[in-house]
Design goal:
heterodimer; A: alpha/beta; Rossmann fold; 2 domains; six-stranded mixed β-sheet; 24 strands; globular; disordered C terminus; B: about 350 residues; mainly alpha; ABC transporter involved in vitamin B12 uptake, BtuC; two-stranded antiparallel sheet; 15 helices
Amino acid sequence: MVDHYLLQMRGMSKSYYGTQVLKDIELALKPGEIHAIVGENGAGKSTLMNILFGMSVIHSTGGFEGEIVFEGQRVDITSPQQAMGLGIGMVHQEFMLLPNYTITENIKLNREVLKDNLFSRLFGERLKSLDMQVMNADARRALDSLDVGIEEYVKVAGLPVGHMQFVEIAREIDKTQIKLLVFDEPTAMLAESEAVHLLRAMERITQRGIAILFITHRLDEVMEVAENITVLRDGRLVALKRAAETNIYELAELMVGRKVEKLARRTDKAWDDTMALSLRNLVVDMPGEVVKGLDLDVRKGEILGIGGLAGQGKIGIANGVMGLYPCRGTVLVNGAPLPLNNTPASIQHGLAFLSEDRRGVGLLLDSSTELNIVIPAVHNQDKFLRKFGPFSQLDDAAIRDYALKMIRDLDIRCTGPGQIVRRLSGGNQQKVCIARALALNPDVLFVSEPTRGIDVGAKRLVLEMLVRLNEQGMTIVMTSSELAELRSVCDRIAIVSAGKIAGILQPDDSDVNFGLLMAGQKDRQGATSYV
Amino acid sequence: MYKKITDFIQYFGVARLIILGFFLFLCVMAVALNLDFAELFSSSLVRIGMNGVLVLAMLPAISSGIGPNFGVSLGILAGLIGALMAIELRLDGYVAFFGAIGFALPFAALVGLGYGWLLNRVKGSEMMLATFVGFSAVSVMKIAWLILPFNNPEMAWPIGRGVRVTIALDNRQLAQLLNKTLAFEIGNVVIPTGLLAFFLLCCALMWVFMRTKTGVAMRAAGDNPRFATAAGINVDRHRIIGTVVSTILGAIGILVFAQSYGFLQLYEGPMFMPFVAVAAILIGGASIKKASIAHVIIGTFLFQATLVVAMPVANAFTADMASMAEISRIIIQNGIILYALTQTRGE
């Protein structure tokens, strides 16, 4: 029986810098099988694939434990080239195509069919010319086997996204020795009809005996094509199910899992109908996190969580409202309309923002801690300045006082207010960002991924701090990829899918409902909406 | 111990160490060759003072994020126009000097605005653009020098139209005006008090400016534009402010330079002056992203003192090759620029 497997991964474990990201993962698939791997962001899907492809990021961080058996042979894959040599191919989420080459050229790149000419006979191999006829015929055959009607001689530039996806796939199946194809979120960029077409193509591919590893979070697609389904959560194998013996709801529940540790806070708040913030038909053009006409109300004094999978648009909301990415729609702050695409106006209206990109947007890495804390307040509210008629000077004493107070209150571990923030740890950098937001004395605080890149202890501190601020009356909108942390501090959690609010849940709603909303399923089982 | 040494080198900068070493080596050579040390020291002080303001012009440019201002020739040209206007009006002494600054300011500010606007279109390749803006402007002004309506015979060609290539400033009591102000001697060393005081005053004013609301916003915009945007700072506007201030300092800088040198140099004169200023601030420890007033002062000192000492030393070795000093100056100067630019590691 063992010999029938095309690929077996046994006891796969991997840690990055002491953090376990994979633990004892088992995976086995037969030729011609479509095997789905589902899980939230950070569940370990990408790491597992990186190991399979021998990516250098794995080997430069100490390798992995476990063994890979391919076609009955134990293999030691140390580079992507070697993986390709074994017959493992990948269809990328982002297209890796040369736009100004034709489809044939893209499919055949670096595997060109060559023929002799005068110069190659004289000067050797490198001067052979391309046999376009054969290449076009090969490309045609690959495209036909996917049932795609596009012409092989058109340039890739300008093709619809769906077609580019098919060109990628055609390139992989044109490789004659291909035995295993990995599809990494292949339908993420596709329209519904294109996605259906793609699933049909996948089934057609498996008829040739090629196995497919299908990585996705669209559970309905999984149910439709996959034979077996592996569910990962937090780097662990949660379940291996036969598609025939499970359903979307069970998968959703397995994917999210109960892992909520509630922080102590009062829950029986009486809400009036005062809205701190109302978003209507918000469209934010943030690359990779597009918001497409979203409506959302934030009650005064609550902690509203915004969750959802990566790329669905949850990150775009705060960035749009703060004017950092082009946005359209209506935003009301305490009932008053907010001018859009105007960061100073957003700050004047009492909004503050902790960016998800702490090092890129959140900090001046080579400036002192105290300067990092005061700059927005200096610029927008004329705080920490001494005025001399039209001239102004930084008020060193006031800045120092405030910085010391913040260092004390937020327990920022640094050698002093003058230390440059690059030298601080991630958790302390985040506290500097919080101190900076507090210097603006905001009514509504947006925090995006507040605990990303922070160790476990500091995570808890940061979350507790947000709860404390909230208890002092600040409305907090917290965007996070970690559902568990949203459920531990939020009053309500809005799940974003495909650029819109899929639904709003209570933190103690069932895992099934969270899982389904995140997977973009509309028919929720007994889910209550609290909009 | 080894770690401490490498940390120190990291902190102090390899480039700075090499130049400092080279400078010390030259000093030893100068002693060995029995050169007049007092004279070398005096002329070092003069060269530091006369170049300092031009180097200072790099500071607002780097701080606001446009990088070393290779286009500071625009400011230099504005300064030269100011000087010509002062001469045309036959102003003398301090009136001429400060008058020239006054005349140059509007030109510098206006040109700086346009130049800043231009630099905002080419974010990421400012240095290349700036260099060629500088070259083009110098070339255009070569024509302008010929046709601008300056008629004072002190600066006109004896025949034909236009102003001369070099114009002596002693007729207008401008030559060494600042150098001689309150100058005194210690032993054989002449201290050009006025010149150094003017440079330090400019530094002090710059220090104050950097701590104003505008200055702080400008620094943030240059340091991390995305941070600045998120803090509600208009990055483009503050880059333009930095460019304007830099251009104005360029105009003042050339006037300080010219009065000490004793001549105005038109036509080719301003072509390569920006490179000297860029090299000095980089060698002072600045990067294309980060600079301080300390970098300006240290850099001007290291760069100019090195050149002052290097030339007689090189001459002593190549007594029969008169042009060697100039050649070695060019090699040293461009070598420093090249080296400093290779040290600009990105984050």
